[in-house]
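Example S7 (structure tokens).
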């Protein structure tokens, strides 16, 4: 087994991915402040160009505020079909070039190059991989190479846009030291503010705080925060395998024709795997409903949808499919729901027409379900009618 001390991990991140895809489709969009998301004031910014970022605009910002910061910015709706196509193109390029890689999101990848120096120069290999991706996809991409996923990810952000950075072995702490504490993944606004009030603004200062103090202050998160501040990260690169589907089905104890009961079960099941979809940071582009009657006849119906992981969208389509299918006056033995055409994605940045309130609602719902169990919080329409 190769020691973690010998690891060589590259992190690759497509620059302003959504924006870059839109600029490939329409070159006139290059070089202008561009916002991707819903056009209403209550919508949020799904992505923005570097030109827009100069005005202080960031992803997940309310669109109303973004338009105030940059009134002349151009707003366009998102196109998940195109983003998924280009994401898959880059995935295929990487899969063709490297033995082990992890796809951590629709536009981010980790490549384990540990041991490759016996045959190739890792730095040259990573640089060549970047050039190949840019040439074959037309998309700009940045990368960083270090001994861990953590340091490589942070370094990639420092290398952007369209840059590359190598952190030599043994220099990880020195690289992190001058950076602001919020550069460390897992430090949100509240934690950053707490640390700022303590006078902790750089990673170096954070790394010098005794472990026991951070643990008393933040619990288990304090331990992990101390480890990250000290550039300690041995998390492995998880080999990427394309998941084909997420599904569930229920065979009833007694065959039924009760439409209200069937609809409540359909709601419960769709919500359940919708939550699972979000927990895996995935979106679905196709939903299938299955009905098995008491005579064992089985029918299915599917429909393509815009990529989403939002229950209210999934439920609307599931109920619509069920209504079109359930046209026999026969007892039902089983119903099932399946999501396919899965792509990596996050709810917050992919629902282009949603409002900040809707996004916060889903985040709160998922937090409660994760903490107490998905069965303890559901729509009223999912409750049994008997």
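Recovered sequence:
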């Amino acid at each position: 087994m190769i020691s973690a001390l010998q690891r060589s991990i590259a992190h690759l991140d497509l620059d302003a991915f959504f924006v870059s895809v839109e600029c490939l489709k329409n070159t006139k969009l290059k070089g202008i402040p561009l916002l991707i998301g819903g056009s209403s004031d209550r919508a949020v910014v799904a992505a923005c160009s570097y030109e827009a970022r100069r005005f202080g605009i960031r992803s997940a910002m309310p669109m109303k505020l973004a338009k105030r910061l940059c009134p002349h910015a151009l707003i366009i709706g998102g196109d998940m079909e195109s983003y998924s196509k280009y994401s898959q193109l880059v995935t295929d390029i990487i899969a063709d070039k490297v033995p082990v890689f992890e796809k951590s999101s629709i536009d981010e990848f980790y490549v384990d190059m540990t041991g490759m120096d016996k045959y190739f120069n890792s730095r040259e290999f990573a640089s060549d991989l970047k050039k190949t991706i840019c040439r074959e996809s037309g998309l700009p991409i940045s990368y960083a190479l270090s001994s861990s996923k953590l340091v490589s990810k942070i370094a990639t952000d420092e290398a952007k846009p369209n840059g590359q950075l190598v952190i030599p072995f043994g220099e990880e702490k020195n690289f992190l030291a001058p950076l602001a504490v919020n550069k460390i993944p897992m430090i949100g606004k509240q934690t950053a503010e707490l640390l700022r009030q303590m006078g902790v603004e750089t990673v170096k200062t954070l790394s010098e705080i005794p472990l026991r103090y951070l643990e008393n202050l933040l619990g288990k998160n304090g331990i992990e925060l101390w480890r990250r501040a000290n550039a300690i990260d041995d998390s492995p690169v998880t080999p990427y395998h394309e998941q084909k589907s997420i599904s569930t089905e229920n065979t009833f104890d007694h065959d039924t024709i009760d439409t209200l009961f069937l609809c409540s079960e359909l709601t419960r099941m769709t919500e359940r795997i919708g939550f699972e979809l979000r927990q895996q940071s995935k979106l679905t582009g196709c939903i299938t409903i299955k009905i098995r009657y008491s005579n064992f006849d089985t029918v299915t119906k599917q429909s393509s949808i815009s990529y989403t992981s939002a229950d209210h969208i999934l439920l609307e389509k599931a109920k619509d499919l069920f209504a079109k299918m359930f046209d026999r006056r026969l007892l039902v033995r089983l119903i099932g729901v399946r999501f396919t055409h899965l792509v990596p994605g996050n709810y917050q940045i992919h629902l282009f027409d949603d409002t900040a309130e809707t996004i916060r609602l889903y985040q709160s719902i998922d937090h409660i379900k994760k903490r107490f169990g998905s069965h303890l919080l559901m729509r009223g329409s999912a409750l049994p009618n008997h």
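Notes on this example. Residues 1-5, 347-351 have pLDDT under 50 and may be disordered.
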